[in-house]
Predict the 3D structure of the following.
Amino acid sequence: MAPIQNETLKPKYIDFDLNFKPSPIFTDSGLGASGDILLKTDADAIKQSVASILQTNRYERPFQHNMDGRTRRLQFEPEDTDMIWKKSSLKKPNSMKNSFGGIHSAVFRHEATNAINRFEPRAAGSIIEIKKTQRGEPLVQVQFKTLDTVEEVSVNIKRDR
Amino acid sequence: MAVDYTGSSTTSTTNATTLGSVDFTKLDFNDIKSSLKSFLEKQDLFTDYNFDGSALSILLDVLSYNTMYYSFYANMIANEMFLDSATQRDNVVSLSKMLGYVPKSKTCASAKLELKNVSGSEQNIVRGRQLANANGVPWFFWGATGFTLGSGLTANAVVYGSNGLVQGEGGTIIGDRTVDTDTLRVSVNDGVTSETWSLMDSNIVSGLNGDDKIYFVDSTYDNYYTVKFGDGVFGKAVTNNAIITKDYLIGGNGNGDNGVVVFSQADSNISINKVVLPSSGGSEEDTLDDIKYYAPAFFQSQNRAVTKLDYDALIRKDLRTVTSVNIWGGEENNPPRYGRVFVSTTSSSAIDTKKIVDVVKNKSVISIIPEYVAPKYNTIYFRNFTVEYDKFNTAKSANEIRDLVRTLMGGGYQFGLIKSSLLFENLNRDVLGVERSVVGLDYFLIVSQNTLNTSPSGSYLFDFGQPLRTQNAVNNDFGQVIYSSEFAHADYASEGSVFYIQNGADGVIDLYSNVDGVRTLVTTNVGTYNSETGFIYLRDVQASENFTVYYEPRSKNVVSKRNIVFQREADWPNTDHPITIEEI
């Protein structure tokens, strides 16, 4: 790995890219890519972490059974639950007017927020929205500010059906 | 990046780290992960290891899981390599094989029945014929050879309680794990003749030659049993293409089939006249604990009965209902009988005592003859049983403390087993343990033995095995250190209807009559006693009924010797002999 010359620009958070793609930048001898994997730093590292948490299912991590992002459940959520609300004696809350799905979406938001607060404190206080794509698939949008840079960051997670 | 094995980068400014900081003693997942994190703290290539969502954390999870998996696996391998710590039955069985031990199979209970042919024709009682039902299982005749029972005739036959029988099974593996290997019969057909071969104890190969038609029973790694034959040197080898057939019974209800006295008819042609001997001998297969206990003991005995412990191990290995065993040499007997070894046992259910001798007689030293002696039950009477307590040290009343002591001394306290002695030290400790205010215990003992049958010759031998109290220190109400219950005496009918014995002077026993409360010496020196060994020999007491001899031992301790088994007076404590609670 090429040395980072300027210590003042050295990122605080360094992780590697879960896609395991080789870095096109760092070289050993100038003859080509070294084969080192790509790194994720600072906001990118946090975004990757948030996406990873939300896409983790319960009991998927060894000895951390309670890490559960719940996005898989959204995958099979009905696109439109207005019919359910119409049959129900309860009125659909205004806060859920533009949301994907129904009651489960509210539960998802609650639990996904908890998961982020617990497992990724760097993205604590995130705002989570669930939207739907043109194909009717759930799209989870997480917005947060990093603690150190106060940078506005947005992560989109789409689950294909 | 170019990183050498120590973790230091040759091209970055990262500080060198060494493997020396890794804690190899941590084996749990979380500990291993913490250790890896500590290791990563010493570098700055990656910093996100502390965040659970990071890719690095996922990598640490995988590494930790893998490490834990292999450490667990290595731990299990190490555990399973030793008999003490192995938990898998197949491993325990394999380890016991190294000690020459074959786990015992289930055994079927057997009973002897008197059968009657109620058909109009002869009946062949052949091996495998079901003759009775009892306890939810069929009972089969399984004798090596059958017999013919004429119409209207009766005969005794031994039947075995089993969940089924297998006859004519091929191959060497016994196909049912619940087999009773004692009932196994193996035949070998070499293409010319079919013969039944003999079972050999797995440990004995010495003395065999290449023509001996024998087989061994061994256990397999998957908990089956298998039949093994000789190799042509130790035992005859089985020829190629020989046909092997096996007959055996499948185990029944184990211990549950013992003591059955009611059998119902299973064959309309054969009725059951009576039960000659109730069922006995049924037992379960070896548990893991059994194998761990018996395999080393069996190895120590080397399948030879030389020491007392050898006899103990061999008997317990084959007869699982035995609860206690005592072995003593003939020189310890009274009178001494040199060249004999005496065995006495107690059992949770009736056992065929002949089997006990059979187990050891071929393994004992030449010229030593094992002999079974039935246990002799001595009844212990607690007298003046007094418990002292400090009333200022408890909120409990005397009655409550009495109840606690009574519960402690409940029916089975330390009694009922051979070699189980009553020691004041232990009893005192237990009584003091019932409540903190209890500070002392005192009692004296009387021991009794019954005559089981009247002796036509008038001679009786009582073995109390304890030193006798001296007459001037006697405690009991009768006032003698040896005395008996009353009995009728044929020789002195004119001198009264009730007689008893008591100790006289200088080690002799005298005969007394009791007429309306007046004790009169009838004759002296009808027997002798030894005040140190506890033997009482009556040589001329023509009692016409059974009687009980009472003996006051010198000590508060009574020690079980030879075949003596202690049992407590059944209805103690009672009004006459209560547990007394005294305040101090």
